[in-house]
């Protein structure tokens, strides 16, 4: 192998630059091979936009959020957007360009980009995957994704800040967090930040149960309550709240708005003044935590090792203490949701956190 390619696809996550840096350093120092980075995911591949990644090109990027390569979520080469509502299959062209430029490709992405990587691998492209997403919802082995730790640490800090103002004003404060169809960010930040109520997509909620919890707190002279709501949470028998649809994306639904709905309803039903904070993309930006920097670095090194060893069609995945290669086909098994019978959720219930059920 002489030349390795790398790209970042889908939504960004803190730690992407740390992976790129680790790939470049490992490739050059350990294996004496060159690395090029395609700009803006598969879109940049199709437009043949790439850059040589030298050690000096990746110098200083370890603590930087975002991705120096750029990314997009409108870049599926199998369903490439050509006009409003029209897509075409440009996968053959994509494979040709990649083969012309590099001997193997590392795709750093979530379920969307890794599914594309899998389809390209099935067509014979030498590809290795590296899992990222703040949502921590990738169903590849036990894969822990980098970006998650940073996202929920930030949401935890937000809860700490909201706690004091909620308490001072005797209010209900609702914090809406991301996570798509899984409640990992809400559950983890809610636990770490001492939320009283956590609403997640895996457990449809009813307002009566939430109000019972708030009344209980009032009886204990606790005149404020903190609610964390995942963007994908919904009322029993209700629907998820959609914020917008993204034209040209093959995953067009963007959730958002449930926090406002919950705050308005709780104010109406309890008479307690309520406010909502939506964390949004603040969870995705900024510097990765030490945990995410280390995980991203380990993933970058492991993905480079796999590529050089010719073990294609796999994604690196942290399972316990070890990083293991998991077949890319596992990405097609859907997303990993919060285990509602798991120890974490049970522990939360035992300390009195209400899930609205
Ligand atoms: O998958 C990561 C994520 O941040 C989700 O939590 C969120 O629903 C979505 O991406 C937001 O996407 P966009 O950046 O396109 O608004």
Automatic annotation (TrEMBL):
Needed cofactors: Mg(2+)
Superkingdom of this protein's organism: Bacteria
Signal peptide feature range: none
Predominant location: cytoplasm
Record EC number: 2.7.1.11
UniProt key word Cytoplasm: yes
Pathways involved: Carbohydrate degradation; glycolysis; D-glyceraldehyde 3-phosphate and glycerone phosphate from D-glucose: step 3/4
Residues that bind Mg(2+): 111
Gene Ontology biological process terms, A to Z: canonical glycolysis; fructose 1,6-bisphosphate metabolic process; fructose 6-phosphate metabolic process
Record's keyword terms, sorted: ATP-binding, Cytoplasm, Glycolysis, Kinase, Magnesium, Metal-binding, Nucleotide-binding, Transferase
Catalytic activity: beta-D-fructose 6-phosphate + ATP = beta-D-fructose 1,6-bisphosphate + ADP + H(+)
Cellular localisation: Cytoplasm
A GO MF term: metal ion binding
Residues the UniProt record annotates as site (Important for substrate specificity): 112
Amino acids binding ATP: 11, 74-75, 110-113
Residues at the active site: 135 (proton acceptor)
Boundaries of every Phosphofructokinase domain copy: 3-306
Gene3D superfamilies from the UniProt entry: 3.40.50.450, Phosphofructokinase domain (3.40.50.460)
Residues involved in substrate binding: 133-135, 171, 178-180, 231, 275, 281-284
Pfam short name (any one): PFK
Functional summary from the UniProt entry: Catalyzes the phosphorylation of D-fructose 6-phosphate to fructose 1,6-bisphosphate by ATP, the first committing step of glycolysis.
PANTHER family referenced in this protein's UniProt entry, alphabetically: ATP-DEPENDENT 6-PHOSPHOFRUCTOKINASE 3 (PTHR13697:SF52), PHOSPHOFRUCTOKINASE (PTHR13697)
Summary of subunit composition and partner proteins: Homodimer or homotetramer.
Family: Belongs to the phosphofructokinase type A (PFKA) family. Mixed-substrate PFK group III subfamily.
The protein's name: ATP-dependent 6-phosphofructokinase
Encoding gene (name): pfkA
């Amino acid at each position: 192998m002489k030349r390795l390619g790398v790209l970042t696809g889908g939504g960004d996550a803190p730690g992407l630059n740390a992976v790129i840096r680790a790939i470049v350093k490992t490739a050059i120092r350990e294996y004496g091979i060159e690395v090029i980075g395609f700009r803006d995911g598969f879109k940049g591949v199709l437009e043949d936009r790439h850059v040589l990644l030298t050690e000096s090109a990746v110098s200083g990027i370890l603590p930087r959020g975002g991705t120096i390569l750029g990314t997009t979520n409108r870049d599926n080469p199998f369903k490439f957007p050509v006009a409003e509502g029209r897509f075409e299959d440009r996968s053959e062209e994509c494979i040709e360009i990649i083969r012309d430029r590099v001997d193997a490709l590392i795709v750093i992405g979530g379920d969307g980009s890794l599914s594309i990587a899998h389809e390209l691998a099935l067509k014979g492209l030498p590809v290795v995957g590296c899992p990222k997403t703040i949502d921590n919802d990738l169903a590849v082995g036990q894969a822990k994704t980098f970006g998650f730790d940073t996202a929920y640490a930030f949401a935890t800090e937000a809860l700490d800040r909201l706690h004091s103002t909620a308490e001072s004003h005797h209010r209900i404060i609702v914090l809406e967090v991301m996570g798509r169809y899984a409640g990992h960010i809400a559950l983890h930040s809610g636990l770490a930040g001492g939320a009283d109520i956590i609403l997640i997509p895996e457990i449809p909620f009813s307002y009566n149960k939430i109000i019972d919890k708030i009344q209980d707190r009032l009886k204990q002279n606790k005149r404020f309550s903190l609610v964390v709501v995942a963007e994908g949470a919904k009322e029993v028998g209700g629907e998820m709240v959609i914020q917008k649809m993204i034209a040209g994306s093959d995953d067009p639904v963007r959730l958002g708005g449930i926090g406002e709905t919950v705050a308005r309803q709780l104010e109406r039903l309890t008479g307690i003044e309520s406010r909502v904070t939506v964390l949004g993309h603040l969870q995705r930006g900024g510097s990765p935590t030490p945990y995410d920097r280390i995980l991203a670095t380990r993933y970058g090194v492991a993905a480079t090792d796999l590529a050089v060893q010719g073990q294609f069609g796999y994604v690196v995945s942290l399972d316990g203490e070890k990083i293991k290669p998991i077949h890319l086909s596992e990405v097609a098994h859907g997303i990993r949701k919060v285990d509602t019978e798991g120890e974490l959720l049970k522990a939360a219930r035992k300390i009195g956190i209400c899930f609205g059920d």
